[in-house]
Design brief:
It is built from 43 helices and seven strands. The protein is mostly helical. It starts with 7 loop residues before the first helix and ends in a 12-residue tail after the last helix.
């Protein structure tokens, strides 16, 4: 048995613990203490603190008399302790409680209770609340360190060699004339179980060697440091302190009631609590919830920025405050007088980090502030063409270490970085102060114009998704480039128009048509001196965007003007594009005669210039119009060719359009099963490419086919999902009218009755879009599709496998070469291949050719490309 301690409190604690039938570990678990803390208290190696004594009394469930005696024993030792002042500097007491940091607090405590974690550094940008978090963690951990917790504020120190003196002042070792401060400090710490909180280390990183030496001689010493960059010492553990979360996991999307404000996101909770202290009448409610949440997002969830912004709640409502926050930095001033100078404004908090950088890295920081939404190393170099690439890499790493930007992911194997918005605003201020703003903005805009033009060359190809993803990642930067071209007056109009024209297909495909159309209108309003070709190109793109948005009259006006310019310039490729979009607009306006005529002209012109992509597009659109016109046989021929051409090009979105057209033709011919299957295939492709306009169209059409097949409930749900998608991209309900959605809705309502219709409609709208699409598409079909060949295709297939040329096949079957080429294109489409070398394998896999027949082909027989 362990000998009984002479301490009255240690005796009382052990007695009452045993009486309760608890082990040291079991008792420690109740108040959340460490088992070693209970052991130290019972051994008399640690004095009891009032808070710990109260927690233990509660955990032991003592009756009134026993509780009084227990606490009296604790107080008797406290009196003795007060006679000898503590050796270590006390922890500061924050003026307000810590809000929303429960996960980080638990993580810090868990790490510092591990035997292998002796140096833990909290890193993060200025204003993120590292100091407050460290202090609260130290309070939680105080019972784990018998010799106390010391707080050392290094902010006033700029000389690294003064760190040892600051530690000595805080810890209070006895001065001995024959020892240096470092030696006295080492001797003092060596025999003690201490936790040292080192605050604001970033400006004296070289002085951290004193801390490293201390850790090597004091086995029971732990250090919790705060710094805007890691200390870079051996054995250091780094824990980034992130901004407060802007959304609360599992929280309702709707604004909470006042009573439920504790369930809001941590950033919103901090704003609410501090605002209530600033103005007693303030409370979070349904009217101000959205504005408060947007303010917190605008401030990146930075606690200091939120607390500085709250001061304005005394005179403005949250909605008014939000209106004044562009930019935000001018408002984030006049912090409390008892804050350090560096934290009384958000600008000063960021300047503290900026001033620690060398001039070259400061210049990089300023230039990088022009990026909105992120950048990588390549785009970063674009705004400093005068600097070597090696400098870019080194400076980016330094800025990341200083938490002036952070890594937000990876794309194309390259890391991607971004600045918090308040830090970016500071960078823009410095950029303007150094008279570099115009240079940096011009370089930035030129880079993204070049990017958009490069992406345009890959539209309608198998590489298109990669480039559309790239543009979507850079959309915020693209908008910044457009804003710069717009803001520099006449000098930027033509470049702005070029950028609009290059982005039109991206905006159309990814659901940003309204945004793109607004930019197009802004530049077109000032196009008087722009080159005619640039005007026509922009008008064509704007017409497409107006069609996508469901503004068909505006689309017709824009495209008519574009057609006139293209004809005047005798520019056939431009004319083809404008004709296709104009014909699609005519179809939407139910002018089918004009639509067919325009498509036929587009097909002739595309064939004349040898543009296979636009031959395929215009042929397909011709098929759509013919189906609407009731000419289903002609439409089938056009749509089959449309599919074959896009399959030969390997352009999956085009294949989806063809499947959509074939489905519509099947529906018009009464084949409901084929129509539903092909609409689902088209939907799957559109969804895979995140082409929301095509998704909305495919859903509307699938709803029609499903209703025709007799399933009104499923049709109603599918139609409801289509409306959700259409609303999400801001498109007009006019698109619904083109495909007869209003009439379909009335038929479904009549078939189901109002109550069942409303229930099915609500169910469709309530589902998250991902889940709704997954349910509509159903489980993937694992069985290979059945391929049916025509008689001619059956004759041609073995000749292809034998390596015959087109001319040889034509001669053998008494056909024209052109006819053979058409049959081969359709055969390739059915097999899903693009070259002759793949024919034999694909045909065998589809069961169209015995394996032996492929093997019988003579070795070395050429599998020539399509001539």
């Amino acid at each position: 048995m362990r000998p009984m301690s002479a301490s009255p409190f240690a005796h009382a604690l052990r007695r009452d613990r045993l009486a309760a039938g608890l082990s040291e570990e079991a008792l420690a678990e109740r108040p959340g203490l460490a088992a070693r803390a209970i052991h130290a208290l019972e051994a008399g190696a640690r004095p009891p603190r009032r808070r710990v004594a109260l927690l233990l009394a509660e955990s032991l469930a003592l009756d009134a008399a026993a509780r009084t005696a227990f606490l009296a024993a604790a107080r008797s030792e406290a009196v003795v302790l007060r006679a000898s002042p503590p050796a270590c500097a006390r922890l500061p007491i924050p003026p307000a409680r810590l809000v929303g940091r429960e996960p980080e607090l638990a993580r810090i405590c868990a790490l510092l209770r591990r035997a292998d974690v002796r140096l833990l550094t909290l890193t993060g940008p200025g204003g993120v609340g590292k100091t407050h978090l460290a202090i609260e963690a130290a309070r939680e951990l105080a019972a784990d360190f018998p010799d106390g917790v010391a707080f050392v504020d290094l902010a006033p120190i700029r000389e690294p060699n003064l760190v040892a003196f600051a530690l000595a002042d805080a810890l209070g070792p006895r001065e001995e004339s024959w020892r240096s401060p470092a030696e006295s400090l080492a001797a003092f710490a060596a025999a003690r179980a201490l936790l040292i909180v080192l605050d604001n280390c970033e400006q004296v990183l070289d002085g951290m060697l004193a801390v490293a030496r201390l850790l090597t001689v004091a086995p029971n010493l732990n250090v919790l440091a705060t710094s805007r960059m890691r200390l870079n010492l051996r054995g250091e553990w780094e824990l980034p302190a992130p901004p407060l979360a802007l959304s609360s996991p599992g929280a309702e999307a709707a604004a909470p009631d006042v009573a439920d404000s504790a369930k809001a996101a941590p950033a919103v909770r901090l704003f609410t609590e501090r605002a209530a202290a600033a103005r007693l009448a303030f409370s979070l409610d349904a009217d101000n919830f959205d504005a408060v949440a947007q303010i917190c997002c605008r401030l990146d969830g930075l606690p200091l920025a939120i607390e500085l912004a709250v001061a304005w709640v005394r005179q403005w409502s949250p909605a008014e405050l939000l209106e004044h926050m562009n930019p935000a930095l001018p408002l984030l001033t006049d912090g409390p007088r008892d804050l350090p100078d560096r934290q009384r404004t958000m600008r000063d908090a960021i300047a503290w980090s900026y001033d620690l950088l060398d001039p070259e890295t400061q210049a990089w920081f300023r230039r990088l502030s022009v990026f909105a939404g992120g950048f990588n190393r390549e785009t970063a170099a674009a705004v400093r063409l005068d600097a070597p690439a090696l400098h870019a890499r080194d400076c980016l790493e330094t800025l990341a270490e200083c938490n002036l930007h952070s890594r937000i992911g990876e794309a194309g194997g390259e890391p991607r970085f971004a600045m918090l918005e308040t830090i970016r605003e500071f960078g823009l201020e410095r950029l303007a102060a150094h008279h570099e703003l115009a240079t940096a903005r011009t370089a930035h805009a030129a880079w993204f114009l070049a990017l958009a033009n490069a992406a345009r060359t890959h539209y309608y190809t198998a590489d298109e998704p990669i480039w559309l993803d790239h543009l979507e990642r850079e959309h915020a930067n693209v908008r910044a480039a457009l804003a710069w071209f717009d803001g520099v007056g006449a000098a930027g109009v033509e470049d702005g128009m070029r950028l609009v024209a290059a982005l039109a297909w991206f905006w159309h495909g990814r659901g940003f048509a309204q945004d793109g159309l607004a930019w197009a209108e802004r530049f077109l309003a000032r196009r008087a001196n722009a080159a005619p070709a640039v005007c026509a190109d922009t008008l064509t793109g704007a017409g497409l965007l107006a069609w996508t948005a469901g503004q068909f009259e505006q689309a017709a006006t824009l495209l008519d003007e574009a057609l006139a310019i293209w004809r005047n310039l005798a520019d056939r490729p431009g004319l083809v594009r404008a004709l296709v979009f104009a014909a699609a607009t005519a179809t939407a306006r139910d002018d089918l005669t004009a639509a067919v005529a325009a498509h036929e002209e587009a097909v002739r012109l595309a064939c004349a210039v040898g543009d296979s992509v636009w031959v395929a597009i215009s042929t397909g659109h011709l098929g759509f119009a013919l189906t609407r016109q009731g000419a289903t046989i002609r439409a089938q021929v056009a749509l089959d060719e449309h599919l074959a051409l896009f399959q030969s090009l390997g352009y999956e979105r085009g294949i989806g359009w063809a499947l959509d057209g074939l489905a519509s033709n099947a529906l018009a011919g009464g084949d409901m099963s084929q129509a539903q299957r092909r609409y689902r295939d088209a939907l799957a492709i559109a969804w895979r490419h995140r082409s929301l306009p095509s998704v909305a169209i495919a859903l509307r059409k699938l709803a029609t086919a499903t209703e025709a097949a007799g399933d009104a409930i499923v049709a109603t749900r599918v139609l409801a999902v289509s409306v959700v998608v259409r609303e999400s991209i801001g498109a007009s309900p006019a698109h619904d009218d083109v495909y007869g959605a209003a009439q379909l809705t009335e038929r479904l309502r009549a078939a189901l009755g109002e109550r069942r219709f409303a229930a099915a409609w609500a169910a469709g709208r309530a589902l998250p879009l991902e889940r709704a699409i997954a349910e509509i598409l159903g489980p993937p079909d694992s069985s290979p599709p059945r391929i049916r060949l025509t008689g001619r295709e059956t004759e041609i297939l073995p000749l292809l496998v034998a390596g015959r040329t087109n001319q040889e096949i034509a001669a053998a079957l008494f056909l024209s070469r052109r006819t053979v080429e058409n049959h081969i294109a359709r055969l390739f489409a059915k097999l899903g291949i693009h070259a002759r070398r793949d024919v034999a394998g694909a045909a065998c896999a589809a069961g169209l050719l015995p394996v032996a027949e492929e093997a019988s082909r003579a070795p070395g027989t050429p599998m020539r490309q399509l001539e």
